[in-house]
Design a protein that fits this description.
Layout (H helix, E strand, L loop, with lengths): L3 E8 L6 E8 L14 E2 L9 E8 L5 E7 L5 E7 L13 E3 L6 E4 L5 E11 L3 E11 L11 E2 L6 E9 L5 E8 L22 E2 L11 E7 L3 E9 L4 E4 L2 E5 L2 E7 L12 E9 L2 E9 L2
Antiparallel strand pairs: 1-2, 2-3, 4-5, 5-6, 6-7, 8-9, 9-10, 10-11, 12-13, 14-15, 15-19, 16-17, 16-18, 16-20, 20-21
InterPro entries: Secre_tail
Organism: Eiseniibacteriota bacterium
Protein name: T9SS type A sorting domain-containing protein
């Protein structure tokens, strides 16, 4: 008795692609009977070759829910319920499409269903990219017109690092990191001026990552001055310079890069390095661009 399911992504048949595989392991630590050593590819949605960033959770009935990010026809996430043999449960043959470009986090709902949550991105010229967590309950028996997802968190903040866990009573707890917008001169209590904010140098990883469209490059500088933002390819060649010659004020800043090179064409898929330089401060993050 006992045992578990394991899910992972492995290199696909085409360069730069990957497949989601599921494996069932028996209670003695060995591969379950009638399961191949390399696991079973999950051929739902676009099928093998375009799937990555997988997650899974038990369905409390001997099966499992699996989610992943897929492309290329339409970049989105998908959730499917699989039975003990790894086959889609009745009604789940096509899975459930989720409008997430960064993957889905799953949690049990204690009623054989599942909670799916993701971080939704919106873009406006005035605010740039904003990120908000959303949660959706999927019942064990799929329905054609399911409930709409609900947004949680601060509508004016940025939310990252989303995690879900079941509460044991049919609900779920969610936790995330949220960065709101602050005014250093705003009063704290009935007119008392706030203390001046002290900033430091910081450079957050570009997001979304992997990226298919524009990415947000966010950093904080401790004092006013020029900032250089440069993108390099994996060979160290300059792909794009996003320098800001005019001095920037101390505090947080955000730059939008549309994945264009110096020739203004979209850069090729691959690994890139984004470097931010502000005075004596230098930091670099890796960014993966996918087709």
């Amino acid at each position: 008795k006992g045992g578990s399911f394991v899910v992972w992504t492995s290199g696909g048949r085409e360069p730069g692609r990957s497949d989601v595989h599921l494996q069932r392991v028996a209670g003695n630590g060995r591969i379950a009977r009638r399961w191949p050593e390399g696991g079973k590819p999950i051929a739902v949605g676009v099928g093998p070759g375009y799937q990555y960033r997988a997650d899974l959770v038990s369905d409390a009935a001997g099966g499992v829910y699996v989610s992943w990010l897929e492309e290329p026809e339409e970049r989105c996430s998908r959730v499917v319920r699989l039975d003990a043999s790894g086959a889609p449960a009745p009604g789940w043959e096509g899975g459930r499409k989720i409008p997430s470009l960064q993957g889905v986090v799953l949690a049990q709902d204690a009623r054989a269903g599942v909670f799916a949550s993701w971080v939704d991105e919106t873009w406006t010229e005035s605010e740039g990219s904003r990120f908000h967590p959303r949660v959706l309950r999927l019942p064990a028996e799929p329905i054609l017109a399911g409930p709409e997802s609900a947004m949680v968190g601060d509508a004016h903040g940025d939310s990252v690092g989303l995690t879900l866990v079941a509460d044991g009573t049919g609900g779920t707890f969610g936790v995330w990191q949220e960065a709101g917008r602050f005014s250093p001169s705003a009063p704290l209590d009935g007119g008392a001026p706030a203390l001046p904010r002290v900033f430091s140098f910081a450079f957050a990883p570009p997001r979304p990552n992997p990226a298919t469209d524009a990415v947000a490059i966010e950093f904080e500088i401790p004092s006013a001055g020029p900032v250089d933002v440069t993108v390099f390819d994996i060979a160290g060649r300059v792909t794009r310079s996003l320098a800001r010659p005019a001095p920037l004020a101390p505090g947080p800043h955000r730059i939008r890069w549309s994945l264009d090179g110096r020739d203004r064409r979209r850069v090729a898929a691959g690994v890139y390095l984004v470097r931010v330089t502000a005075g004596e401060h230098v930091a670099t993050h890796k960014l993966v661009v996918v087709p």
